[in-house]
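thought: user wants a sequence for this fold. calling inverse folding tool.
action: design(structure=
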């Protein structure tokens, strides 16, 4: 299912199996595996147990919503810059005003992600 708002669409709860698009848990797992491989060259980091790997995954999943909302925030900042350039007539694209009109929906979506997937309330020290 593709979710559509007034002017934007995203995957929503679409079933991703068989599409080649990774789910959020698969992306986080892949990220953790990458960092596990990166640690292999460091002797003090190579004696990791399955429990510590699981802790890394759980911690990364706990923070995934925060990082996603931060990514959306950064995109909002970029679009705000596009809107500013469009408003003073120095935009590099004729579609700048159209892109700028998406900003309110992007901000709403950013807030929604942060509300639905808040960072943990405890202070976690990242091992990633």
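)
observation: tool returned 128 residues.
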């Amino acid at each position: 299912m593709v979710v559509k708002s007034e002017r934007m669409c995203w995957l929503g709860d679409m079933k991703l199996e068989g599409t080649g698009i990774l789910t959020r848990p698969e992306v986080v797992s892949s990220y953790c595996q990458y960092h596990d491989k990166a640690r292999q060259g460091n002797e003090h980091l190579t004696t990791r147990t399955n429990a510590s790997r699981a802790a890394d995954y759980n911690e990364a999943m706990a923070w995934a919503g925060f990082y996603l909302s931060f990514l959306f925030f950064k995109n909002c900042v970029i679009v705000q810059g596009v809107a500013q350039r469009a408003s003073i007539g120095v935009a590099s694209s004729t579609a700048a005003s159209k892109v700028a009109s998406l900003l309110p929906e992007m901000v709403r979506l950013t807030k929604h992600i942060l509300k639905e997937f808040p960072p943990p309330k405890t202070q976690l020290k990242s091992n990633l």
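thought: summarizing for user.
answer: Here is the designed sequence. The beta strands are 3-4, 9-10.
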